[in-house]
């Protein structure tokens, strides 16, 4: 079972390790020393790219837009199997379906297929998210990774600037446990050590782990937040957080990496380098905007033109 899961997670693990270093997944870390984030670019040159993630999103500086509805497909179906793994850097969940979970719409031209989800957290409840909002850090962040279905394989998608979409959700602390996450949190004891995995008995639907509202979100172009930090990601950060108790988040901090306790795994924010960040105001979900033509790779100038048009339309509607 472990061998099968290792193969399974090798594919999804491309998000965590370098394709040039298969099996060498411990060549980056988060604690101070040679493996910490400021040193990643020594071994992974692409981590010093211009358009890296995460970033600090300043709400005063974002461009407000009104994008078409973000469409979810098959998110109310329970997976046939759900595996959970401690890969030494994070907790990764692989959900297998008889029909794929997909997203389209919003800022996306192609359709993207769900690949895996994982988490980032901090040493205490005052920090842990990767993207910041107004320099504010949330205690944990969920990343749902989707791959562009226009490409034949995940490895090809990782070479394209529109290869991946990550739906990011922030967590905030609440007094009560969130029952949707109980099964995940309960499994953390079993995967306490790095490179261990298990299956969840029941699993969950994708909808159940999304924030209640997915209408309002920030979106920008950036990178994987782990080596090799490839600049292939369209980020969609939902505004509304998910609630989780302190004890539930604390359980993640108890996991072990190969270097000790995995108390935190958030990369510090990177330079924005003039990138535009958009905020979807929602409320005009059926607004018709020009199609940026299928097969066209994501392009800032074209996207900008569409955004400007959307802004004008939204402003007119508001007036
Ligand atoms: Zn991540």
TrEMBL record:
One Gene Ontology term, aspect cellular component: cytoplasm
Enzyme class of the recorded protein, top EC level: lyase
EC number: 4.2.1.1
Keyword terms of this UniProt record: Glycoprotein, Metal-binding, Signal, Zinc
The keyword Metal-binding appears for this protein: yes
Residues in the signal sequence: 1-17
Residue ranges occupied by any Alpha-carbonic anhydrase domain in the UniProt entry: 26-281
One GO MF term attached to the UniProt entry: zinc ion binding
Family as reported in the entry's similarity comment: Belongs to the alpha-carbonic anhydrase family.
Descriptive protein name: carbonic anhydrase
């Amino acid at each position: 079972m472990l061998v099968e899961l290792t193969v399974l997670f090798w594919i999804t693990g491309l998000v965590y390790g370098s394709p040039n270093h298969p099996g060498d997944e411990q060549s980056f870390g988060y604690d101070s020393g040679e493996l910490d984030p400021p040193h990643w670019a020594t071994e992974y040159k692409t981590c010093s790219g211009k358009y890296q993630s995460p970033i600090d999103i300043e709400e005063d500086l974002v461009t407000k837009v009104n994008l078409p509805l973000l469409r979810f497909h098959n998110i109310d179906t329970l997976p046939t199997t759900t595996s959970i793994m401690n890969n030494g850097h994070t907790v990764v969940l692989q959900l297998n379906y008889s029909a794929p979970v997909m997203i389209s719409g919003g800022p996306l031209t192609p359709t993207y297929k769900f690949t895996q989800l994982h988490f980032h957290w901090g040493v205490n409840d005052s920090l842990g998210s990767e993207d910041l909002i107004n320099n504010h850090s949330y205690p944990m962040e969920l990343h749902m990774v989707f791959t562009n279905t226009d490409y034949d394989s995940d490895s090809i998608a990782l070479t394209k600037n529109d290869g991946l979409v990550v739906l990011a959700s922030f967590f905030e602390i609440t007094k009560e446990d969130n029952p949707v996450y109980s099964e995940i949190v309960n499994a953390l004891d079993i995967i306490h050590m790095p490179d261990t995995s298990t299956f969840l008995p029941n699993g969950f639907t994708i909808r159940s782990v999304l924030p209640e509202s997915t209408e309002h979100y920030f979106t920008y172009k950036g990178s994987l937040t782990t080596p090799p930090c490839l600049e292939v990601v369209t980020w969609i950060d939902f505004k509304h957080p998910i609630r989780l108790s302190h004890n539930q988040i604390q359980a993640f901090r108890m996991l072990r990496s190969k270097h000790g306790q995995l108390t935190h795994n958030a990369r510090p924010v990177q330079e924005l380098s003039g990138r535009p960040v958009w905020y979807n105001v929602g409320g005009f979900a059926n607004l018709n905007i020009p199609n940026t033509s299928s097969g066209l790779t994501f392009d800032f100038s074209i996207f900008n033109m569409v955004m400007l048009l959307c802004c004008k339309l939204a402003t007119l509607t508001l007036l």
